[in-house]
């Protein structure tokens, strides 16, 4: 009995000793003392790891007595190693130094703003994206950033999604990935459905509102998004992430990485699949993607290859919800044909080099290729043969001029080119100069096929009823410089010359010949001043000019002699950025004056297609504020507010008139009206609560004010204001057998708000008691009511 008692006491003593061994510390930037939030700390050989919190603090509990090798790492910093002994090491103060060569950070420097750049921007980190990444597209993940309004055709954030920033749609938001342009060369849009789960391979996103500093791709006319993909990791890793939720939504992702091999090589890979039935009837999505990256990391150079691809099949919900069904059947979908789908695959190849020469020079160059191909399939009831260039069909004594058909409309394109830059930093640090440019070509085929017809007539399957090709060359050179003219005062200048050649030929889908070419020369200057105060404030002011060519439909829908003029934007920005301990904020005012902005007015071309027209003068002006405060180690409060005025000085609306035998268009003149889809108020608030280590609970609120479906400011063509609330739970534990187990839950639209952030409208006159009567038809894209996604990530 005595032996048993002593043995038990010994075990209790050992357990007590084991439980009392804790290791903690802080990890900060060696130069600034700022905490490195999200830095990784591991105890090598134990499988134990930790992440620095908002104060840079980390902690290990319940460690056995002994010696450990601790390793700390953070992107853009040299890693740190230290041997610690327990008990006795106390609290560690770890300071990381920035890399002598910022390696992959320099890849995006030509399109990025820095702290001294006099423009309005915000950077969203991987950690912030990961909190909400359960399968929805990037626009939905950015919903709570300033001045952003998001929408989804299927209503659940999976499939076709879109975003507007300051009221500007995706065709006016310049997007680059690792400095390489992503906007479609012809439509200027970015189709996020072709990049499913791309957020899982993103390191950070910088959003610049206004003209910003982006130098590659189509001109920024509302904002730019500069995306940097995952950078190398010091340690090997593997991750399996799965999530499921409403509307049979599923996401499965596998990520692996080699870490640094022989201190020189690294390989990272991701494989994803996302599926969803969608909130709207039949608005299903079946999405697949992969990401593969390999790099060589020398002392003064980095070579990197990125290959990523997305394949999507989505059932069409493009028609929208008629106003008559808004209160009775919000999930209604006009399309019922079982294969009314969009099918597309897009492959991206990036070959990137960055290097350091001497003490003053860094260079970056990238070759890229994007290969896209796919079609959307449609069932068309009682279509005219003439619409397809076909003659009527004679059957006996009957002349058949129309029939039911199924058609496919194809895109088959290549986009490839080179972007490059060189950075000079003077020895005294006063001059920071970047020079560079790019040359890109788009070569795209557009064609349509009839794959079935109830009455076929003189046509064979796969016959092309239209076929045209477009080639667009886009070249630019730029030079930008920041000069410290006095202590903490910085002057900034950015000069870009952009040249475009666009030529197209063939037959359009409306059976018109569209042969032509166009040339543009644009000069886009930017200049500004900033001051870094000693209390953590940076004040700035800037003026920038951007010129933008018309999109493809402006060329093909207009006679070549009547192509709209290019648009011009003059942008003034002024504001302050501040970070003072646990409190940070940004406040800015802006004015965006447009010359010859292109809008839909109802005007039609010679075959009845609606075309865009230039309006001489329009503007956006506003105030934006965003702030975040760490109320205590457990509570964080953040939010943003955007107030704006968005006006068209004068324009003419054209309305189809069917009230008489002779078709005509009625002209109505308007002055001082709101620009379509431009709410005067957008606001968001986020509160995070961390009751225990590893658990974070978030509540997110979003408000979007009234906006209009067109530019007439007509109350009958309005999207009503809405207020939504989302709830989020993230819980991380670190058991011995894996690096981390992460559990995630996101409840969207907690209070079941009925809202529509997007839609379209058209009006026409019909015969009426007073001679004619105006009919307006509104269509909406409703968002889902209360819905959820839940997931688990296992990290090895």
Automatic annotation (TrEMBL):
<dbReference type="InterPro" id="IPR012910">
    <property type="entry name" value="Plug_dom"/>
</dbReference>
<dbReference type="Pfam" id="PF07715">
    <property type="entry name" value="Plug"/>
</dbReference>
<keyword id="KW-0472">Membrane</keyword>
<dbReference type="InterPro" id="IPR008969">
    <property type="entry name" value="CarboxyPept-like_regulatory"/>
</dbReference>
<keyword id="KW-0406">Ion transport</keyword>
<dbReference type="InterPro" id="IPR039426">
    <property type="entry name" value="TonB-dep_rcpt-like"/>
</dbReference>
<dbReference type="InterPro" id="IPR036942">
    <property type="entry name" value="Beta-barrel_TonB_sf"/>
</dbReference>
<feature type="domain" description="TonB-dependent receptor-like beta-barrel">
    <location>
        <begin position="313"/>
        <end position="750"/>
    </location>
</feature>
<keyword id="KW-0408">Iron</keyword>
<dbReference type="InterPro" id="IPR037066">
    <property type="entry name" value="Plug_dom_sf"/>
</dbReference>
<keyword id="KW-0798">TonB box</keyword>
<comment type="similarity">
    <text>Belongs to the TonB-dependent receptor family.</text>
</comment>
<dbReference type="Pfam" id="PF13715">
    <property type="entry name" value="CarbopepD_reg_2"/>
</dbReference>
<keyword id="KW-1134">Transmembrane beta strand</keyword>
<feature type="domain" description="TonB-dependent receptor plug">
    <location>
        <begin position="115"/>
        <end position="223"/>
    </location>
</feature>
<protein>
    <submittedName>
        <fullName>TonB-dependent receptor</fullName>
    </submittedName>
</protein>
<dbReference type="GO" id="GO:0015344">
    <property type="term" value="F:siderophore uptake transmembrane transporter activity"/>
</dbReference>
<dbReference type="InterPro" id="IPR000531">
    <property type="entry name" value="Beta-barrel_TonB"/>
</dbReference>
<feature type="signal peptide">
    <location>
        <begin position="1"/>
        <end position="19"/>
    </location>
</feature>
<dbReference type="Pfam" id="PF00593">
    <property type="entry name" value="TonB_dep_Rec_b-barrel"/>
</dbReference>
<keyword id="KW-0813">Transport</keyword>
<keyword id="KW-0675">Receptor</keyword>
<keyword id="KW-0812">Transmembrane</keyword>
<keyword id="KW-0732">Signal</keyword>
<dbReference type="GO" id="GO:0009279">
    <property type="term" value="C:cell outer membrane"/>
</dbReference>
<keyword id="KW-0410">Iron transport</keyword>
<keyword id="KW-0998">Cell outer membrane</keyword>
